[in-house]
Structure formats: structure tokens, C-alpha cells
Amino acid sequence: MIYRFVIYNILFFILLVMASCKHDPDIAGIPIEPPLLIENCDPDTVYFQNEILPLLISSCGVIGCHDPGTATEGVVLTNYASIMQTAEVRPGQPDESDLYEVLTEDDPEDRMPPSPRQSLSLEQIAKIEKWILQGAKNNVCFTNNCDTIAVSYSNHIDPLIQNTCVGCHSGNDPSGGIVLSNYDGVVQVALSGRLLGSVRHEAGFSAMPKNGNKLTDCQITQIKNWIENGTPDN
Ligand code: HEC
User: Fold this and answer.
1) Cα of 176 to ligand 1 centre, how many Å?
2) Which single residue of 11, 48, 75, 189 could bond 86 by disulfide (Cβ 3.0 to 4.6 Å)?
3) 78 Cβ inside 6 Å of ligand 1
4) Any residues with CB less than 8 A from the CB of 58 and at least 6 apart, and which?
């Protein structure tokens, strides 16, 4: 009896392991492929891993909203497969895609993200639209010409933080009490050493962006040089 029980358990365990290792090639018709790596970023292309994913993680994929644990209305916005599937993204058709529709709802009650969370800017919404129009690919690009010398707040630091951090670090109840939605807030965190410590994933700091990919070496160097240059507001 006991033997049979043990064998059943072992069999069950093996099945479980096999099931969890099984490559799932196709969720709701969307092939799950590794990201498409592009060597040099094309300024006319919107790249999912560089721009769309960080924005969705910080603005929507947070605890209490669309992280895997909460999954409000079954929608999870923290990785490509679940964004395509649960936010019903139709490549080439933003108006048929739930992800885009909820950002452009006329009724403020239905629009996402709901208040008091900061809404996406028109520029960010346009970026999501463009990405869907360009086929909603799981693409990522690397740039070889990283400008770490002439780093400015308005051209480098602010766009990076708006895209990657502000969804969590703004509004009435910013994460960790840290506000990154304006220059003064960013400078305060920068001068405390916590900005660099957190994006470098140094011991003693919470690793940022929370739940997202680590920033690129280029982005981290830009932040470091901007701080070393005296956090200019240019
Ligand atoms: C998904 C939400 C989320 C995103 C995105 C996010 N943060 Fe955070 N951040 C938090 C939370 C929550 C805390 C509080 C500490 C914790 O829970 O880890 C925090 C804490 C911090 C801290 C304090 C760390 C410390 O150890 O003192 C800094 C600095 C910070 N974040 C900067 C950033 C920066 C810069 C980005 C973007 C590159 C970013 N965060 C993106 C949620 C987020």
C-alpha cells in the first residue's frame, strides 16, 4: 500500500515537472519566442523591451493592479505573453486592442490607470499605439552610441525616469515615499545616494526598477555622470 502511494507520488511529481518544463509554444495564437534582438536602435521603431514593458510595469503591473498576484480582471501586464493575451493586443490594430482602448476611453471612470494614479502622457499613449501599429513585436534594441558625456535632465534623465519609474513613484502615495515625477524629487534622491545605489542593485538598497529589467549600463552611467556633474536642470 505504502509503496504504491509512494510510486504514485513520484509519478505525479514527474508529470508535474514535465508539465512545467513543457515549452508552451502558443498562448492564444501568440507564438512565445525570445525577444528579437536588434543591434542599433532605429529611431522610428518602438521597441517593446526598451520602452513598452518598463512603462507598463511601472504604470500598470504593480501590486494591487495588474501584477501576477492581483491580476485585476485577469489582466497581467508584466511580461510580453500575458500582455498580448490578457490585454488582447491585436498586432496592427490599436483600436481593436484592449490595451490601447482603455488608455483612450472617453469616460474618465473607465480610463486606465485609474486615479489617483498618474495617467499616461499623450506621448506615452502614442508610443503604445505606434508599437501596436508596427506589429506589437517582442523586440529589443541595443545602442552602440551611448552619450554619457553631455547628459542632460530633459534629454536623458527625465525621459528614462518617466518611462521606467514614475508610474510607481508619483501621486498621493508614491512607492517608498519617493517622488520621481519632478526635478526636485529626483535631485533629492540622487543626492542621498539612493538613486544610484538602487539602479546599480547595490547591497543595502532596494533593487530598482522593482519587478523590471535592470537598466542598461549606458543608462546607469548616464545617471552617474549626471549626478557627478552636479545634477544640472538643463
Ligand atoms: C513597480 C513599482 C516600482 C517601480 C517601477 C520602481 N520602483 Fe522604486 N520603489 C518601489 C517600492 C515599492 C519601493 C520601496 C522599497 C521596496 O519595496 O523595495 C521603492 C523604493 C525605491 C528607492 C529607495 C531605495 C532604498 O533602498 O532606499 C529608490 C531610490 C527608488 N525606488 C528608485 C526607483 C527608480 C530610479 C526607478 C526606475 C528606474 C524605480 N524606483 C522604479 C517601487 C517601484
Assistant:
1) 7
2) 75
3) no
4) 163, 164, 165, 166, 167, 168, 209, 212
CA of 166 to the centre of ligand 1 (A): 10
Mutate to test the pocket of ligand 1, among 166, 168, 187, 211 (most ligand atoms within 8 A of CB): 168
Report d(CA 99, CA 87) in Å as an integer.
Answer: 5
CA–centroid distance, residue 62 to ligand 1 (Å): 12
Q: Which of 166, 192, 213 has its CA nearest to residue 58?
A: 166
Q: Ligand 1: which atom is nearest the Cα of residue 54?
A: 5
